[in-house]
Amino acid sequence: MGRVALAVVGGIAAFAIAAALIGFAAGHYTNATTTVTRTGGSAPAASAGPSNLSPSVQAGAHDFVLFACSQCHGAQGRGGVSPAVPALTSAGKTLTVAQLRTIIDHGLGASANPKQPYMPVWGEVMSNTQVTDLVAYIRAGLPNDPNAQPVHVPYDEAPAVAGAALYQRYGCINCHGPSGLGGIPNPLSHDKVIPPLSGGGFHHDFPTDKAIADVIRSGSVIGKAPIVSMPHWGGILTDAQIADLIAYLKTLK
Ligand code: HEC
Ligand code: HEC
Predict the structure, then answer these.
(1) Which domain holds residue 166?
(2) In a domain, 17, yes or no
(3) CB 120 near ligand 2, within 6 Å
(4) What is the pLDDT of residues 201-252, one digit of tens each?
(5) Is the CB of 68 within 6 Å of ligand 1?
(6) What are the helix (H) ranges across 170-208?
(7) Considering the entire predicted model, what is its pTM?
(8) 149 falls within a domain
């Protein structure tokens, strides 16, 4: 008897929680337009929103910005950033799901010419779900999601302030961690982790602005996939942006 009563009470509680969640979701979606206004987002006010996109394509659109794919391949993969980086607008038709997965997991072109931008290795840095979502987004033709915007860079403020935004916009944060603290696993590399960009070891190995700028510009290929290497940013980042990034790194621990 007692058990039955408990089960009934439990059932009612679960029902109440579910009802509350539905209520929250309903309010949440009805308020969507207000939310955009409140955060002062740069999304076009009249936009219909990305609701016509599947959840996986929406997530892929955001991953494309968070992992800075858009900083090398252009917004929505339309190219125009560097002659060395192809547009991705036809990749969804010419490449199969399996080929796209392999390219994102293992990179492309690094060994062919380490002096030019190459497609970085992402397998250790991303989850399978993130790769699946990116593939879905590319296969869907890289549609516009007005909420998937790269971080704004305040170039009119101090170099270190612009550099902090660039650190996110160009996805350095995904590999080197917040505040350059490091710790992101790179199991087959010598150090087992992607190096931090702070602390005594970093300052010892990279004592001058020039030493830091050189490695950002050229990248550093430390092995074949699945080892993650430092991407080559020359021709992608300008000298002024690299100087801003260094100013930011010098404010860290
Ligand atoms: C540092 C610049 C850079 C970044 C960041 C970058 N890529 Fe690439 N990507 C390249 C370059 C360069 C190539 C061409 C490599 C080659 O063909 O040798 C490429 C090639 C590709 C290709 C193959 C295109 C084709 O038609 O063969 C795909 C797909 C791709 N990238 C997806 C992505 C995705 C998804 C991301 C984000 C997770 C990303 N890239 C981030 C530089 C970059
Ligand atoms: C895909 C992951 C990845 C991304 C994205 C990335 N890095 Fe790196 N970075 C690495 C790896 C791996 C190394 C270690 C290379 C080595 O040991 O030679 C490295 C090394 C460095 C170093 C030299 C530190 C050292 O101890 O070797 C600097 C400075 C650096 N990265 C800055 C940046 C900046 C700035 C950005 C963003 C514009 C960035 N990185 C984006 C993976 C990445």
Answers:
(1) 159-249
(2) yes
(3) yes
(4) 999 999 999 999 999 999 999 999 999 999 999 999 999 999 999 999 999 9
(5) yes
(6) 172-176, 199-205
(7) 0.85
(8) no
